[in-house]
Specification:
This protein is an alpha/beta fold. The protein has a single domain, classed as Alpha-Beta Complex (Spore Coat Polysaccharide Biosynthesis Protein SpsA, Chain A), CATH 3.90.550.10. Helix content is about 35%, strand content about 15%. The protein has a 7-stranded mixed β-sheet with strand order 3-2-1-4-6-5-7, sandwiched between helices. The N and C termini lie far apart (about 45 Å).
């Protein structure tokens, strides 16, 4: 059964605000784009099904064309509402949807395949982040549960919501799906700082 992958992207001018004290705006933009490109390439390599970008970023049409993915509007809505808006725009509605973070640069195609293979069908699979957030959410059928990214310890929130909806669920700890880049420590752990500027140096000299 094919999986529709939806990768959400916030507007690039507000990307990675928690790195403001370490990286210039242009470098935060470069970092976000480099991570997005890596994640899209992995999603395409995994060949699970169609891949789409959900965003209101003004440069998104050219970006989606460059990356070779479909472009879905998020309606300029808050994060989870925007993902729901993007899913609802698809006709016919896909049987399975994989919401995938754009800032997990170490994920591999093998890890994505293992994550999907471990998911209950029907049901929900949750890829737990290092801070107990969620970096990937697979929902079957696709309209069985709305995403709740951004909630504190959202992996637990997603698990509780699946349980309340009587949906089988699995919470999975997979290395490349666990490391999302929100802080300068995350960026160092992921080895992505060299991607953000010609010198490879942010404001902290890292």
């Amino acid at each position: 059964m094919a999986v529709q992958t939806i990768i959400g992207l916030k507007r690039l001018d507000i990307a990675k605000q928690r790195l403001t004290s370490h990286l210039r705006p242009i470098d935060r933009r470069r970092l976000m784009l480099s991570m997005l490109e890596a994640v899209v390439a992995v999603a395409q390599s995994a060949d699970l099904g169609p891949v789409a970008l959900a965003t209101s970023e003004p440069t998104a049409p050219g970006l989606a064309h460059k990356l070779g993915v479909a472009l879905l509007s998020d309606g300029d809505l808050p994060w989870n509402d925007g993902l729901g808006h993007a899913l609802a725009s698809l006709t016919p509605r896909p049987a399975r949807v994989l919401y995938l973070a754009a800032d997990i640069p170490l994920v591999t195609a093998a890890e994505l395949l293992a994550f999907v293979a471990a998911a209950p069908t029907p049901g929900v699979a949750i890829a737990r982040a290092r801070d107990a957030g969620t970096n990937a959410l697979l929902v079957t059928p696709s309209d069985a549960m709305r995403p709740m990214f951004g909630s504190p310890r959202s992996s637990e929130v997603h698990a509780a919501a699946a349980g309340a909806a009587n949906l089988p669920f699995r919470v999975l700890d997979i290395a490349g799906l666990a490391l999302d880049v929100d802080t300068i420590e995350d960026a160092r752990d992921a080895g992505v700082l060299l991607a953000v500027s010609g010198t490879g140096r942010g404001r902290d000299g890292g």
